[in-house]
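Subject: for your reference before the review

Hello V.,

The reviewers asked for a structural picture of the protein, and I figured it would be easier to keep everything in one thread rather than splitting it across files. Below is the amino acid sequence we used in the manuscript, unchanged from the supplementary table.
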Amino acid sequence: MTLKQQIADLKEQLAAAKQHTYIHETNTLQVWDGEVHIGFGDAQKERWLVWNVESIYKDLPFLIDQVVKEQKKQQIIYLDSIKETIKDI
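And here is what came back from the structure prediction:
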C-alpha cells in the first residue's frame, strides 16, 4: 500500500469515527424546556447530548427492551465468572 493510499484510508477511518460518540458514563442528567441534557466526558472537556423529550418518549419501549436484554446478558456473564472463580477457591 502506498503512502497516499494509507493516508486516504486513514482519512476515511477518521471520518467514520467522527460519526459516532461512545458514552461510557454520564456526569450530569438534566431536563429543561422539553429536552434531556446528558453531560459526559472529562471535567475539562465535558460534552453534551441534548435529546428532545417527545422523541425519547416514543423510543422508550424499544430502549427499555434492549437495555433489559443486554443487562440480562451481562448478568449471566458476571455470574458465570463468579461461579468459575468459586470453583478455583
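For the response letter, the relevant points are probably these. Residues 53-88 form the longest helix (36 residues). The mean pLDDT is 92.

Happy to draft the paragraph if you're swamped.

O.
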